[in-house]
Amino acid sequence: MLKKIGNVTLIDLSDSDSNIYVIDNMVIDSGTGFNFNRLMSIFSAMKKDIASIEWVVNTHGHFDHIGGNGYFLNAKIAIHELEASILENGDNDMSFSEFFNGQVHPRNVDRKLKEGDEINGFKVIHTPGHSLGSICLYDEKEKILFSGDTVFAEGVGRTDLPGGSQEDMKKSLERLKGLEIAKLLPGHGAPVLENVKLAMDSISDSFY
């Protein structure tokens, strides 16, 4: 599935892949990498060369978000500093690659992100809870939040995996509730394009 949301293109390859977001020459998350031919076909339909992607930003280090990094050969890779070792060491345990019948191949991290950084105009918000190094990316001008697996249209990410924390998730949700968000673009599932505050309040209330 291909969906345009302003200057953002959402690519939904399969149920096992994360959402892949393309903004100019940056990609947010890369899926498992198992559906490369389909991804290439979509890029062709977009009239975009996959080699033109300059940055891949991973919202966290789980395999369904990082497995496709290697297909963006010309791109630099960015991930939170707490999960950079997952990529650099090819950590199949912390990436949960075996759950997806995959394998992480070691790759250099070009930029280790931390709270408050900016990358390509997006503010980095460290939102642990689903994993230690989970991040959201916030476009302050357009009020768009790329939320990774922190929060979805109707719930939050799992907190029962290694590196997850229910208490951290509560704190992260409280931080996000303080943002002005017009569009919520999660790591899986449908975007929330209206009444985001209402959705966020409902999710937070049910989580507590």
Q: How would you explain this protein's 3D organization?
A:
By secondary structure, the protein is α/β, with parallel strands linked by helices. It has a single domain, classed as Metallo-beta-lactamase, Chain A (4-Layer Sandwich), CATH 3.60.15.10. 21% of the residues lie in helices and 25% in strands. The chain has five helices and 14 strands. It has a seven-stranded mixed beta sheet, with no helix packed on it. The protein has a five-stranded mixed beta sheet with strand order 8-9-10-11-14, with no helix packed on it. Strand 6, helix 3 and strand 7 form a beta-alpha-beta unit. Helix 4 (166-177) runs antiparallel to helix 5.
Distance between the termini: 34 Å
Question: Mean pLDDT, nearest integer?
Answer: 94
> Which oligomeric form is depicted?
single chain
Please give the largest β-sheet. Answer: 7 strands, mixed
Please name the fourth-level CATH homologous superfamily: Ribonuclease Z/Hydroxyacylglutathione hydrolase-like
Strand content: 15-25%
CATH topology title: Metallo-beta-lactamase, Chain A
Keywords:
208 residues, seven-stranded mixed β-sheet, alpha/beta, Metallo-beta-lactamase, Chain A, five-stranded mixed β-sheet
